[in-house]
Amino acid sequence: MKKVAIVTDTSADLPRSLIEELNIHVIPLKIQISTNTYKEGIDISFEEVYRKFRDGCQEIIVNQPSPAEFMELYKELSKEYTEIISIHLSSKINGTVSSADIAKKMLGDLVDITIIDSGLVSMGLGVLVLEVARAAKALENKEQLLLLANKIKDSIKGFLLTEGEYKNLFLPQMDKAEEPYIYNIFMFNSEGFKFLEGHRNKAKSLQDFVNVICSHVDNGLKYKIAIIHSDNLEDAVKLKDLIESNIKYDHLIFSELSSISAYNLGLGAIGLVLYPV
C-alpha cells in the first residue's frame, strides 16, 4: 500500500494541473444558491459563481463538507494508503476542520488520520498543501511531514487588496465612524488577518500594495509566490509586472479565488502569497 495521502478542500484555490501532478485529494465545499446546492469545482465552477455575484445574486451561501462526505473520502483512501494528512482552511472561517474531525472520530482505527487546521485560506492554504504534497513523494515518515507542515505554515505570508465592500467573516471589522475606503490592504498569516491601510485612488492603492509587500520581503531570500484574484485578471497581471523587479522568486502560480474567498472579499480583489525557499 501507499504511505501518506494528502487531502485538502477547494478553498485552497489549487490549479487542476498541480492537483493531478502531486496526487492531492480535494474535497469540495458546497455552494448553496437559492434552493440548489452544488459541489464547488464539480457541479459549479468558480467562473459560474463569479457570474452569479456579478448578476447581483444575494442568495449564495458557502458551506463546509459534511462529516459523511469526509468519511466517504477517508474510507476510499484507506484502501490505498496507510495514513492521511488532511489540511484545511482556518477553523475561524468555517466548519470544515470540525467536519473532518467528526469523520475521523467516527472512523476510529480504520485509518490513521491527522487533521491540520492551517489557520489560512486561499493560496496561503494552497502553498502549504503543495509543499507537503511534494515532500510526501520523497518522505514516507508522517511525523517528518507534520514537522515540515508546521514549519511552512509559520513562514507563509499573504497580502490582499480588496475593492469596494467586503464581508467581515474573516477580515477585520472596520470602524464605522470612518468614511469607508474604496481599496483596502490587508496582510494575513496563520494567526489571522490585519488591516494595513486604505485608499480611494486605484492607481495609488496598487502601487502602495506593492510597496507593502516589498517591505515584508527579505532581499537575501528567494520565494515561491502565488498571485490570486477574484474576477480581476487584468490587475493580477499588473501586480505580477510590478513585483517582478522587487522580489526574487523561482516559482509563480496564478489562481482564481474560490467561492468562500470571493464571497467575503468581493469581486475585484487581488492578492499575493509568498513562501521563502
TrEMBL record:
Keywords: Lipid-binding. GO terms for molecular function: lipid binding. SUPFAM superfamilies: DAK1/DegV-like. This is EDD domain protein, DegV family. The keyword Signal does not apply. Gene3D superfamilies: 3.30.1180.10, 3.40.50.10170. It holds the Pfam family DegV. PANTHER family: DEGV DOMAIN-CONTAINING PROTEIN DR_1986-RELATED (PTHR33434), FATTY ACID-BINDING PROTEIN TM_1468 (PTHR33434:SF2).
